[in-house]
Amino acid sequence: MSGGLIVKTQQVARPEFDRVPIDATTVGEVVRPLSPLQRLLDNALFRRCAILAALALIWQLYALWLHNSLLFPTLTDTLKVMIHDFGDGTLLKRTEASLEVLLIGYAAGVVLAAVLTTLAVSTRLGDDILSTLTAIFNPLPAIALLPLALIWFGLGTPSLVFVLVHGVLWAIALNTSSGFRSVPETLRMSGRNYGLSGVRYVVTVLMPAAFPSILTGIKIGWAFAWRTLIAAELVFGVSSRSGGLGWYIFEAREELNTSSVFAGLLTVIIIGLLVESVLFRTIEAHTVEKWGMQR
Amino acid sequence: MTEAGNLVLDVRGVTLQYKTPQHLVTATYRIDLEVYESDRFVILGPSGCGKSTLLKAIGGFMAPIEGDIFLRGKKVVKPGPDRMMVFQEFEQLMPWKTALGNVLFPMKATGRFKGKEAYERATAALSKVGLAKFVDSYPHMLSGGMKMRVAIARAMAMEPDILLMDEPFAALDALTRRKMQEDLLALWDQLKFTVLFVTHSIEEAIRVGSRILVLSPHPGRVRAEMNSSYSLGQPLDDAAFGLLSKKIHDLVFEDEAEAKLPGALV
Question: DSSP H helical segments within A74-210, as ranges?
Fold first, then answer.
């Protein structure tokens, strides 16, 4: 625009045209199925199994190379102990004991979290109470409450459940309420447009809309519950008549039976893996992924 | 008010205010409007004229600080399924429900239609908007225009007293938008529903509306109301369309024209 700049406006002359699109039948199938190898590599289950197999192989090779079964038993030794202990029922009984307490505590935590967040989303006071309580208790390690639980409830399942609820509740409540807050305003308005309010509004609109966050909370809560339980059992698993997996590991260590320690740990890992990759994966595939809320 | 029986929506002297963290904003000031049965009533205005806020108040999502809103003689105090809203955002659909599920949901939630009747109404509404093949698709599998069709079908299946549409086509591309306008008119031709339509596009107002209310901004006040006879059967010819468009354009932009005038003279 200022001096010196010359704008050329000469246009190239091109003829207009109008034609039938070229024949595309030579392309063959427009939608072509993938080869079996490609499909296998796209299978997340297959890829994860391959990683697990690789880890198992590394374990076995390292243990063989170390050649010290007191420090680091081989995978095959660990599996032998595991099979033996499952066979005679000791490990099975321990696992059952752990899972029972775990499920009671976890369920109680989930229900409490649901009640608290529903209150929080319905009233401003409830919201303030929940966020304050979460800020206070969330950073507090569940295991730190164990001495208190022992004083209040004595040795036994109630103490464990108390500690578990504490471990689960705040993680789920925190995730759920942040999920509720991120529900789009338009979706809220269209829910209220139908005259929905109170619990019905929370259950039919907010909960499914916040489900990705709720699911994250439930997963984190599960992990917290698991690790809290094992830690608590390591401390006083002997109390309850039949100790859990934590107690099994503790006992084995006392007897310097390292293969059994590993067998106990492996059991914990396998249960965790199963719940994560079977239960939670299935829930995910049938909800948030199907709804296009998460990839 | 010649035929009081046909009066669907009566907005009388409505002033609306909302709070932002720093300010108290007056969105509309003493708005009057009357919508009659089978009107395609368009509220048109530049951004900042409070048209969306007004629609929210009619929807019952906020209370006027002055004036009243009556729907068929009954005062509006809270949201309800007698005024079904269609929003601009695609998020208004529930991602966890199929197209059919979305249309069924308000019918079942309100208990207005049940069981087989609800199902039949929902499928009928979806095929009316051309989505018969997509009843089992989830919203994320549908295009923007199709999601909007689901939202319209959902609102229509409820047979509300009035359909409230808040710039419903604003997020669509220009071609889809034109198609949706035509389809809405075709649908209206069949069902003759009453619709209140908010837009900032003059062209859309003329195409969609039978009656156009122009608001002036900051705060929104009634500026003019006029008829547009554009509809499927009797489209305006290009000249009449241009004339009406020019008239509305001058109304909407008159403040700017005045502001520019002194500068132009110098």
Answer: 75-87, 90-122, 124-137, 146-153, 157-181, 185-193, 198-201, 207-209
- B171/B46 same-domain check: yes
User: Which residue is listed with tokens 């081989």?
Assistant: A74
pLDDT for the residue numbered B263: 46
> Residues B144, B176: one domain?
no
For A290, which of B80, B85, B138 is closest by C-beta distance? B138
> Domain map of chain A by residue range?
36-67, 73-286
Model pTM?
A: 0.78
Q: How many whole angstroms separate alpha carbon B57 and alpha carbon B150?
A: 24
Residues B243 and B145 in one domain: no
Do B171 and B204 lie in one domain? The reply is: yes
Do residues B168 and B216 both lie within one domain?
yes
What is the CATH number assigned to the segment(s) A73-286? 1.10.3720.10
* Chain A residues near any Cβ of chain B (below 8 Å): 184, 186-187, 189-190, 192-196, 200, 204-205, 208-209, 211, 287, 290-293
Examine the domain organization and report whether B236 and B258 are in the same domain.
Answer: yes
Those residues whose C-beta lies under 8 Å from the C-beta of residue A104, and which sit 6 or more positions away, are A157, A161, A164
ipTM: 0.80
Domain that holds residue B152: 89-159
Instruction: Give the whole-angstrom CA distance, residue B175 versus residue B145.
Output: 10
Chain A hits for B85, Cβ within 8 Å: 189-190, 193
Question: Residue A211, exposed/middle/buried by CB under 10 A (0-12, 13-18, 19+)?
Answer: buried
Displacement of CA A229 from its chain's centroid (Å): 16
Cross-chain residue pair B89–A184, CB shorter than 8 Å:
yes
Confidence band (pLDDT; 50, 70, 90) for B118?
Answer: confident
3-state secondary structure of B150: helix
At B64, the pLDDT band (50, 70, 90 cuts) reads confident
Beta bridge partners of B214: B44, B224
Q: What are phi and psi for residue B214, nearest 5 degrees?
A: -100, 130
Domain end position, chosen among B159, B194, B215: B159
How many angstroms separate the CA atoms of A277 and A275, rounded? 6
> CA neighbours within 13 Å on the CB side: how many for A275?
17
In whole angstroms, how far apart are CA B44 and each of A240, B52, B211, B226, B251?
73, 10, 10, 11, 10
Nearest Cα to B55, choosing from B81, B91, B27?
Answer: B27
Same domain? For B134 and B251 the reply is no
Same domain assignment for residues B65 and B190: yes
Q: State the Cα torsion A208-A213-A219-A220 to the nearest 10°.
A: -150
- Could you give the number of structural domains in chain B? 2
